Amino acid sequence: MGEQLSPDEKFKLITRNLQEVLGEERLKEILKERELKVYWGTATTGKPHVAYFVPMSKIADFLKAGCEVTILFADLHAYLDNMKAPWELLELRVQYYEQVIKAMLESIGVPLDKLKFVKGTDYQLSREYTLDVYRLSSMVTEHDAKKAGAEVVKQVEHPLLSGLLYPGLQALDEEYLKVDAQFGGVDQRKIFTLAEKYLPSLGYTKRIHMMNPMVPGLTGGKMSSSEEESKIDLLDKNQEVKKKLKKAFCEPGNVENNGVLSFVKHVLFPLHSEFAIKRDPKWGGDKVYTDYEEVEKEFAAEQIHPGDLKASVELALNKLLDPIRKKFETPELKKLTASAYPEPSKNKGGAKGNPKQTVDEEEVIPSRLDIRVGKVISVEKHPDADSLYLEKIDVGEEQPRTVVSGLVAYLSQEQLQDRLVVLLCNLKPQKMRGIESQAMLLCASIEGEPRRVEPLDPPEGSAPGDRVYVEGYESGKPDDELKPKKKVFEKLQVDLKISGEFVAQWKEQNLMTKLGQITCKTLKGGNIS
């Protein structure tokens, strides 16, 4: 691969669709002399999802350009990152990642014989590597280590020392894998610059760093393994893919934070060099695009309907997923999947009267709540109740949700307009004075004369649809709808409070999004409802 390409052609292929390259001149020099050696690493934590097709398509580009490519399964990193992968599951997670990554590469036509696969603990526990970790830790400040991992390592109020080691180990990997370049997402940039700063201090060469843009998830934010609704699992069935794409944020004419369009740009076009829109003849009929810019331009001009875009992406995506799903239908890989990602433990005694019920169904835990960031896009008085507001709130779906709230006594319409808020989205819709409320606006309150009420505040930079979770309960899937008779929210609500530091908590565990803590401006010690 790559034999017929000139150095300039190789450079263009290697760097296409990248957001940034640190060390471009060094890259050009190497390509004039020999093939580039590059590695991509992935921490073996949650199940890989369809956004992994973005780095896979770049790996295909690297191979076409003649690069020597190493894929690192970073099992030790997975453990160091706030123990996202339990020690006893590390080996199983590596096996799962290896099988699913290879299945993805085969799905897009990448020859596996051109790739080298390495497991982190195969060399990261060696005497030489361990000594270099100690040498590096004597140079890197706590400030630099924390800053480097800020966008990659899970951020918590009381971080573990392991999370501070993570960026340094990733820097050392470049030397121990004997590569010229490391490839990753732009969220890795601070780790890359730490490597460039400190590796020369150990006597090692500064490497080239190549960065992909971060592809928005289906809800408009970063696609994440811990946010069920933001990502499509590689083993999701066709109907689940359809369901998640139907909920995806894809506002007519809006090309910003549009995860569906981004998937077309960063996966489908690099792989196929074209994209076909399938639609009814009365709306213009089918059309094949050979230039992504034309797709984006016509979507921005509302010449492509979001429904047609989603249906066309669904068709293309299922073609990519079909061979992966088929491979994982074997008994061996079904067993591996279940072992690497075990379901919550079964309730041995079962629920009274139904011995087959599980803890997953009966246990009252916060991951059963579908809590999201929302943005108030309109607010007016309820037509039949002056004490109630009628709000339209964007929660990252195609249509805003109607919410009826009793905030009239506490906030003006102007104070609510365009405000980011926090909503519970899986309560059963309930009519309030004749109008159905489709979510609950979560607020802090303190009883007294007068009663004080204040909506919760998402972290700065949040987007509608961002998932809100309780620390320690990131991986659970919310109930589709909370059954009123079970009173799940009511039981959890008893322990929802505002801390002394104005942070929303459940049993002293912080409510979080991927960007940080959910807070309240003034009601320290208040209840949340």
UniProtKB/TrEMBL annotation:
It is found in: Cytoplasm; Nucleus. One of its GO terms (molecular function) is tyrosine-tRNA ligase activity. InterPro entries: aa-tRNA-synth_Ic, NA-bd_OB-fold, Rossmann-like_a/b/a_fold, tRNA-bd_dom, Tyr-tRNA-ligase, Tyrosine-tRNA_ligase_regulator. Keywords: Aminoacyl-tRNA synthetase, ATP-binding, Cytoplasm, Ligase, Nucleotide-binding, Nucleus, Protein biosynthesis, RNA-binding, tRNA-binding. GO terms for biological process: response to stress; tyrosyl-tRNA aminoacylation. Pfam families: tRNA-synt_1b, tRNA_bind. Its main location: cytoplasm. It comes from the Eukaryota. GO terms for cellular component: cytoplasm; nucleus. NCBIfam families: PRK08560.1 (NF006330), tyrS (TIGR00234). This is Tyrosine--tRNA ligase. It comes from Carassius auratus. The lineage of its organism: Eukaryota, Metazoa, Chordata, Craniata, Vertebrata.
